[in-house]
C-alpha cells in the first residue's frame, strides 16, 4: 500500500503531497503532487502496473532533463560521427532552447510540434527537418540504451516539414568572373584561405565540401591525373572511398597552388569556414542566391555539356550512388540542348 504524506513549509502550511511506494522486486517510487487526489491516482496506477508485472520505472526520465541527454549525446554519439561539426552546432543551439530545461518524461508530442513551428519561423524547412531527425535519434538512444524509460518517442508521430530543396542555380553571364574577382580581393587578407584556387577546383571536379577540405597531397597523383577520396558521404560497408579522374584544368590549379609531398592541400581549415568565406565573397560580388554547394551543380552540368561521358561515368566522378540522385544535380542549359537538336555533338564536337 502506498504511503502518502503531506509536505509542509516552514509555517506548517500544506504545500503538497508526497506519494511513496515500496514493493518487493521493484525499485522505490516517489513523486510529489499539489493535491492528495492526484497522489492517490498516481499511486493506484503504479501499484496496479506492479501487480500485473507491466511496471516500467520512469523515475530516471522524471529526473533527467533534455539538456542533460543532449549533452551526453553530443559527447558520446555525435563526436564519433564523421563530419560531426554541423550536428554538434545544432545540438548546442538546441540546449539553449527552453524545451531543453524540461524533464524527459514531461515532453510531449505537442511540445515537439510547437518547437517545430517556432523553428519554421526562423529557419528553412530542410534545416528544421534535419534538426527533428537529430532530436528523434536523441530520444531513441535515451530510451533504448540509457535507461530513460518513456511510453514512446515524442517525435514518432509528429509530422516533418515537406522539403523541396532541389536547386538549379548556375552561373549566369559574367557571374563566374565576378566571383573570382571578389575571391581574389578576399584572398589578399592576411591568413586568408586559398579560396580562389578552391573555387576553381570545385568547378572542375564537382567535389563535396567535406571532400575538398579533407584533401591531402599524398592522395593526389598529378601524373596520372587522379585523386583518392578516402572518405565520402556515400561510403558503404563494402566500399570505402573512391578514386576520381581530374581534368587538366584541375591539375593546373594544383600546380599553381604549389604541390607538396604530403599534408593538407588547402591548409588546416574547417568546412564551415569555407562556407562563410564563400558567402562573404558572393555578397562582395553582388551575387544573389548562390551557395557553395551550387558549384557542385555547375561542375556536374559542365561535365555533361563539355564531354561525352555517359551517366555511369559521370557518377564515378561525382560520387553519386544512383542515376536518379545524379539527375538532381544536372541542369543543362536550354540553348545547349537546342544546338544538340541541330546535330551538334556534346562536348563541342
UniProtKB/TrEMBL annotation:
Gene3D superfamilies (UniProt xref): 1.10.150.130, Intergrase catalytic core (1.10.443.10)
Gene Ontology molecular function terms on file: DNA binding
Signal sequence segment: none
Domain Tyr recombinase: 166-342
GO biological process, one term: DNA recombination
Ranges in coiled-coil conformation: none
Alphabetical UniProt keywords: DNA integration, DNA recombination, DNA-binding
Keyword Nucleus attached: no
Stored SUPFAM superfamilies: DNA breaking-rejoining enzymes (SSF56349)
Protein's UniProt name: Site-specific integrase
